[in-house]
Amino acid sequence: MPRFFVSSADLEEENGTTRIVLEGPDAAHISRALRMKPGEELVLCDERGTEYRARIESAGGQVVCTVLDSAPSETEPPYEAVVYQALAKGERFDTVVMKATELGAARIVPVASSRCTVKLSPADYAKKRERWQKIAAEAAGQSGRGRIPEVADPVRFSDAVKEAAKADLPLFCYEGGEGPGTVPLPELFPEKTPKTVAVFVGPEGGFEPSEAREAVGAGMRPAGLGKRILRTETAAPFVLASLAFRYELAGKDGGNEP
Amino acid sequence: MPRFFVSSADLEEENGTTRIVLEGPDAAHISRALRMKPGEELVLCDERGTEYRARIESAGGQVVCTVLDSAPSETEPPYEAVVYQALAKGERFDTVVMKATELGAARIVPVASSRCTVKLSPADYAKKRERWQKIAAEAAGQSGRGRIPEVADPVRFSDAVKEAAKADLPLFCYEGGEGPGTVPLPELFPEKTPKTVAVFVGPEGGFEPSEAREAVGAGMRPAGLGKRILRTETAAPFVLASLAFRYELAGKDGGNEP
Fold it and tell me: Are residues B143 and A242, on separate chains, in Cβ contact within 8 Å?
């Protein structure tokens, strides 16, 4: 069933019925591209992770829908994973946004680290962010996410580390070498599903040992992802896949009945 | 230390010393790009997963090296994972080859499935294969692999399924819907590290239910990767990350000492 993202503020309660009006590109997509007609159903997801099954009452430039029922999204992970990713050159950050969205990230925070070669002016960044937010929205729709991850404003390394350290599972992905020793990822995963996870990933070339020491000093856990060297855009997907494998799929939810 | 891939057949034994001569692009890279000089050391990896620490005796158009010692590669996974990937349009197969190499695949087999929209002539394919093998070689070098995964000739779905079913852990990634029910990935992973793993991934749009039934009939296990819909190029990396998390990192090997 087609899925669209809405704001919970746009739901209108009237005589015991909940209605919502879709406009702009979503309405055009429903009416023209999908050629949906009154009586057909679609799924609307709000920013709180609630999914609404809705019936189209009228289509066209505006699409009026009535909500039939609602339930918490079943495709959102049981943890809130925030990806802190060093700004990368070219299309690498695009890839991270797309893959992190597919793999269940709740939020993506660009980080300016000292080895990071990308310097953006606020105006450049506003453009970039709009682009990344659009990539996240598309990937969320395509992968059946219950919400669109937010792409945040860029944060300085020291501030990002302090924020990330507050997570139940604050993972600082580090290749090692000088600086603090790492612990293999599975050993850092607690028995019980953590409520919040931070996945901190460095730029191409890795973090400086001093940055790793600062992160560990702030309370982050230095995580080892193995002996192969992962590209900067592969590290967060690796950790997000591991989280899904360990906390989301282990159980009955990953399978389906015929 | 710079890493180069060699064939074990090129090692020459003479008076108790093992020598190897590098030519062509590798020799040019060592002599010109890296400006390495006699006395400096590099790492050579052969197709069996052995790493040789070697000293340069003479550089130039040919680089003559003496082997100092050898050991099994420490960056190869403890299992042989073969990725069977439906041929995909555009650059998606490139991405799969690159990421599967980074994440430890031993071999990548292109599969022609019935929903697969890519039809290649043998001549087209030979060109593509050369390109993919080059991507694999670059990714292997960059990620510190002990060997270059082989990109195989394309195989028809029915033949690929029969071959893949022979693996200790024959995973058929299936989104479900009609056809056989799936089992969540972690439930399919045995306690003991499997020697051989097959990771079978469908095209955009998934496998036909009849294909899934054929695979299960041949002995493959229908694996559920969760409720979010992964793109075709994300599925194999997801499974390879899960394998690394479960069988390679769980233990001491994923961490490093300061």
Answer: no
Give the model's pLDDT for residue A254: 43
Q: Is B49 on the interface with A (CB under 8 A)?
A: no
Per-residue pLDDT at A115 exceeds 70: no
ipTM of the complex as predicted: 0.88
In this structure, of A52-66, A152-166, A201-215, the range with the lowest mean pLDDT score is A201-215
**What is the CATH architecture assignment of A80-249?**
3-Layer(aba) Sandwich (3.40)
Q: Which amino acid is at A22?
A: L
Could you tell me the pTM of the whole model? Answer: 0.89
What CATH code would you report for B3-72?
A: 2.40.240.20
DSSP for B96-159 reads HHHHHHHTT-SEEEEEE-TT------HHHHHHHHHHHHHHHHHHHHHHT-SSPPEEPPPEEHHH
Instruction: Locate the domains of chain B by residue range.
Output: 3-72, 80-249
Is A190 touching B (CB cutoff 8 A)?
A: no
3-state helix, strand, coil in chain B (%, to 5): 35, 25, 40
